[in-house]
Specification:
- The complex is a heterodimer of chains A (235) and B (289).
- Chain A is α+β, with helices and mostly antiparallel strands and 235 residues long.
- Chain A has helices at 3-16, 25-37, 61-73, 77-84, 102-110, 143-164, 170-177, 184-197, 201-215, 219-227, and strands spanning 41-49, 52-58, 88-90, 115-123, 126-135.
- Chain A is 53% helix and 16% strand.
- In chain A, a hairpin with a 2-residue loop joins strand 1 (41-49) and strand 2 (52-58).
- In chain A, helix 1 (3-16) crosses helix 6 and helix 3 (61-73) packs antiparallel against helix 5 (102-110).
- The longest helix of chain A has 22 residues, at 143-164.
- Chain B is an alpha+beta fold and 289 residues long.
- In chain B, 46% of the residues lie in helices and 12% in strands.
- Chain B has a five-stranded antiparallel β-sheet with strand order 2-1-5-4-3, sandwiched between helices.
- In chain B, helix 1 packs antiparallel against helix 2 and helix 2 (51-66) runs antiparallel to helix 6 (170-188).
- Chain B starts with 29 loop residues before the first helix and ends in a 21-residue tail after the last helix.
- Classes of the chains: A alpha+beta (235), B alpha+beta (289).
């Protein structure tokens, strides 16, 4: 087994694997992220639609307050990661240029945070939100931790999509295990369904997934039917 | 049967894969074409280029330089699944052959071992019981894969399909490997993802750009009632003729932020019988005017 696959399975199990007396995934993801990635705090913000944000979870009340603050201000590392679609890393908020996130940096530092690392939750053009990690000390992430964090953002993206499609959480681990679940045809079908239903591609993917689950078929098969124009979502 | 007179066979004078050499009328020698490719590449890398467009151009050059029928660049994603990120053609048959290699095939072997996989003739020896027959049925008996590496980390592979059984010469192998390295460098140089100073992030960004293109192909295919292949051709033609980045155009189409007038333009922009052979303009010259 390759190192990349090992990492994926380790992070996927850490974030979404079954546990005794665990809270629902939507509530427990952040505390699991803190454990799995060994960081001080984690927040996950999900965009409902058209810029309406929902703080899905936070590892502690301070983190929740900061996540809400930055999305309310429309200014901060997670907002930048969400809008730019690439990770945004600030290794020291105290020594960052004063123009960078002027209204966010002060309250963050007052809460004991020095470094922030924000990762977009995205699948192509479907932008779902952002994952943000906080550390009390300044400094860059080690390469290995960074690779873990990028994989964690991918796992959380899949988890958010699963929750949005109303699928039971038990199905998630099996799908995360199947590396081929989301290949090109699934993305093409998402684009087609997005036109058929006049929704975004993220919502379209959730609908595809829900249909596959209802029919008890792999999502790749349902996508192939859509691409071959044997199945539509608007009739 | 109509009698057509004076219709020259040479009317279609692109270098077709599988054509025999030695006609004496080749437009450029391989050496010239290779030099031109690397000059173009270097020129592009210092500009604000689109990574998918550049990798597509490299795939097309690979076809010409190595006399291949089809080529593709595949990257490993976070789940370690090989995803096609650019290809010389978006034909479903070719894409299917790339997809299939997540179970077995030259790319998977190459990705796992980090070594080139050169397989001149599947008809005489076939190590891949699922992949082999599909490739043969597609008329692609000769298959090869070259690792895209970053130090000791294998990030993906360059895949070649040949229409005739043929061993690769030492020169072929050197050219293919150089193009595979060039593809890795292009991804690392993508300015759009440059800030994060993290190579894994660079590769994930490139994969997301490709996903956005697949989503946009779906949108366009549904809007215009055309194939995915044709949708890609129109998107790319529009991006080129309007000096837009292919990935940016695709993302805004899939995000539903592209103005309706522009969508109509793309849908209307059929290229009837037009040759898709690249003009002398650098394929990935995307500098804003």
């Amino acid at each position: 087994m390759s190192a990349g696959r090992d990492r994926w399975l380790r992070i996927a199990a850490g974030l979404t694997g079954p546990r005794d007396n665990a809270p629902p995934l939507s509530a427990g993801l952040c505390s699991r992220c803190v454990e799995t990635l060994s960081v001080a705090g984690t927040g996950i913000t999900v965009m409902a639609s058209a810029g309406v944000h929902v703080s899905m979870c936070a590892s502690d009340p301070t983190v929740r307050r900061l996540a809400e603050l930055e999305f309310t201000l429309g200014n901060g590392p997670a907002v930048d990661a969400y809008e730019g679609g690439v990770p945004v890393l600030e290794v020291d908020l105290v020594n960052a240029p004063p123009t960078r996130w002027a209204a966010f940096a002060g309250p963050a530092v007052d809460s004991g945070i020095r470094a922030v690392f924000a990762f977009p939750l995205r699948l192509g053009a479907a932008r779902l939100g952002a994952l943000i990690l906080y550390q009390p000390r300044p400094g860059a992430m080690a390469d290995d931790t960074m690779a873990d964090a990028l994989v964690a953002a991918e796992v959380i993206t899949r988890a958010v999509l699963t929750m949005q499609s109303g699928m039971p959480e038990e199905g998630l681990m099996a799908e995360l295990d199947d590396g081929t679940a989301l290949h090109a045809e699934v993305h093409q079908a998402s684009g087609m369904v997005s036109v058929q239903l006049d929704v975004g591609v993220g919502d379209a993917l959730a609908r595809l997934r829900a249909r596959a689950f209802a029919l008890n078929r792999p999502i790749a098969d349902v996508a192939a039917d859509v691409v071959a124009r044997r199945m539509r979502f608007d009739d | 049967m109509t009698d057509r007179e004076g219709v020259s066979e040479a009317g279609n004078a692109t270098i077709r894969p599988g054509d025999k050499k030695g006609g004496g009328q080749e437009v450029a020698t391989r050496e010239e074409l290779l030099a031109q490719t690397f000059v173009e590449l270097a020129d592009t890398l210092v500009e604000d280029f689109d990574v998918i467009e550049l990798l597509t151009m490299l795939s097309e050059r690979c076809v010409e330089l190595l006399d291949a029928a089809g080529t593709g660049i595949l990257l490993g994603d976070a789940t370690d699944t090989l995803q096609m990120i650019a290809a010389s053609s978006e034909q479903a048959q070719l894409l299917e052959l790339f997809q299939l290699q997540n179970r077995e095939g030259p790319c998977l072997d190459c990705y796992r071992s980090g070594q080139p996989v050169v397989h001149p003739d599947l008809a005489t020896a076939n190590p891949w019981p699922r992949f082999g027959p599909v490739a043969l049925a597609a008329g692609l008996p000769s298959v090869h894969a070259f690792p895209m590496r970053l130090r000791d980390w294998v990030v993906g592979t360059l895949n070649l399909f040949m229409a005739e059984p043929r061993p690769l010469t030492a020169a072929d192998i050197a050219v293919a490997q150089a193009l595979a390295h060039a593809a890795s460098i292009a991804i690392l140089q993508d300015h759009a993802a440059r800030d994060n100073r993290n190579t894994v992030g660079q590769f994930q960004h490139a994969l997301n750009s490709r996903i956005a293109i697949e989503q946009a192909k779906g949108v366009l295919s549904e809007r215009a009632g055309i194939t995915m292949d044709e949708a890609f051709t129109r998107l790319r033609a529009h991006a080129r003729s309007h000096n837009l980045k292919l990935s940016t155009l695709a993302a805004s189409l899939a995000e539903r932020t592209l103005p309706e007038t522009r969508i109509s333009e793309i849908i209307g922009a059929a290229v009837p019988g037009g040759s898709k052979r690249s003009s002398r303009q650098p394929a990935a010259s995307l500098e804003e005017s």
